[in-house]
Structure formats: C-alpha cells, structure tokens
Please model this.
Amino acid sequence: MTTAPGSPSLPLPDRTFRAARLGGLPTGALAEVLHLGKSLGALDLAGGVPGTPRPPQDVLTAASEALLRGDNQYEDTSGNPELRRQIAARCATPTDPATELTITTGASEALCVAMLATVDPGDEVILFEPFYENFLAALAMAGGRPRFVKLKSPDWRWDPDELAAAFGPRTRAVVINSPANPTGRTLERAELEQLAELCERWGALLISDEVYADFVYDGRQHVSAADVPALRERSIVIGSLSKSHAISGWRLGHLRACPQLSRALREVHLATSFGANGPLQRAVAASGVLTGGWDPRADLEKLRNRTVDLFSGLGLTCRPPEGGCYVMADISSVTDEDCKTFVHRLATERKVLLVPGRCFFRDHDGDSGHVRIAFNKPAETLDEAERRLVGGV
Model:
C-alpha cells in the first residue's frame, strides 16, 4: 500500500487525548455515594436536591405561560435587566445591577467563571477543609494550586495563625462558603474582616460562595463579603436560586462584583455559556418571587431541629448548623467503623443514605469520622427515615 505524501511512515504513538489539567479534578466521591444509594433503593438524605421548600407556584405559572406563548429565545448575555434589578434590591449593600451583577448558568458556572477570570496556572488559592468538592474542580480547570486550611470541629472555625501562615506571595485568592456545605457554619463579620485584612496585605481576592444565604437560623442575619467595605473591590460573590427557590434544574445563578471585576467575569461568561436560560430568567422576574417576601426559613429550621433530634437520639453527635441545609454529624460515639463503611452499612441494612464526611476532604481514602445529612426534604421523608432507623444505627 502506497503511503500518501506527507503521511507519517510509522504508526503514531498511542494518545489518550486527555488534558493534563483533568488530573487535578476530584474523583466524584459524592456522585459515587448517590449512585450507591440508588442501586440499593435507599432513602436519600445525602443529596441536597430540594424537597423543601417547594418551588413557588407563581414562578412555575410564569414560566409555563412564557414558554407556551413562544418566549424561547436568548436573553442579554449579562442577564435579564429586571432580574438583575430585583437581585440587587435584595442586597444589603447598594449594588448596581447594570455593572455589578451577571446571571450565570447556575452557581457551578459562576464558580468556574470566577476562577478562570482571576486565577493563572501556578497561582495558589486557599481552600478551607472540609470543602464542597466543586471548589477543587474549578481550581483544577484554571490550573491553580490549592492551599488547604483545616477547620476545627465541632464548631468548624479556623485557627487564625494557621490561616495567616497559608498566605504568601503566590496567593491569588481565598474561597469561602457561608453558610457552608457541608458544615452549616455561617461566617461572622469579624471573620470576614480578618480575611479582608489578609487579602489586602497579600494582594489577594476573596471568592465567596453564598448560595445558602437565604437559609440562616436562630435569628441570625447573613453577612455577605460584599457588605464588608474592605472587600467591596476585591471580592466576587456567588449566588443561586437553586436551593432558595427549589428550582435547581433551571440553573440560574449569579455573580456579584465591582465593575472592574465584573467586566473580566463577563468576558469569560460570554466565551463559555454565552448566557443563562433566557425564558426562565424572564419568568422569575415576571413572577415577583424575589420581591414578594418569599421566606422558607421557618420550615427549614423545623426540619433542621427534627433531623438533629433524630440522629442525636440515635447516638450521633450533632451540632445544629447555623445555616444551609446539612447537618455534619460525628459518628465516633456509635461506631468504630470509618465513615465510608458506616454509610455503606446503613444504606444496605437500613436503606437510609447519608454522605461519608471524607467526600469533603482532600483525602478521599481517609476517615473524617463524620457524615453529612441533608434535611431540605419533605417531612414525610424524615418520617420514613425515622421508621427505618428505629432500633439504632
């Protein structure tokens, strides 16, 4: 057989066609747990897909009417102007919807956009451990290097000296999550001011995931990074309607930053998703749910208290979370098993699925001694969980 001109005379070496950056992605430990639960037919107290609250009827009606009348096209790439105006009106600190807010395809895109717009390969980014694993994924895609600071249980606070020691000349950003997944910890203004001082000293940026901002309990008030004057020009706030309004499948998140940072964020947003779901943005704005006093906290606080009581009664050590929709429970008082073995046994024997805490630590093969329990579920789900767990764990 004649070799065509310009063709290699020898076979090409095998290629994986896999980018090196994928080596930094987390293993998807949480997804594995959810697959396990489905295969065993276990009751899901693992995933955070909202069962409570239910989506507001007004927004569902607005969306269905919009689609049926032919509203199916693009929106302004930075987001529907009226939706941005309504989000800005909910902010405690004045926010310009035209220059400081960008609607994204969920908080996941917002996180990736924030990393890609601000982090160069080799830059260091501080992550607090335990952490939501998508933080590590977004950082890997940007080529940054994680620098971990461990939070101390049971109240999940950092050691100020360890935090200060994590900063250095290569520090580009710090990622926080308040209220936090998985711990439910809600940062106080003094802690944000401490971060502001360190960021200013080292010329670093703060990326603040605040998707659970609507869910704070016991009379607390959420304090956004954007509410701290020293962080106004060096913070990116990530928000979402997925949990707060129980429309996670609509993928509507947002980024809040000063105009200069917003311009950079919008460049990446334009190059990746181009724009978020137009008809659903317009439906949310038209429904008025963001301005009509929607507040499911009372229901979620009851579910939180019931979940803490249920698992404390079974012998686990549960600290009521200050916010969010998860309880991080210590299992050491009821078992000598590692957290993965405990979760697997509970799913197999009791048909109740939790998340091993190690999914939120860098060492997925280690033992955190904790499990995460989602409580944003219908009351009937907790009824059934209690029935299945009668007799202990």
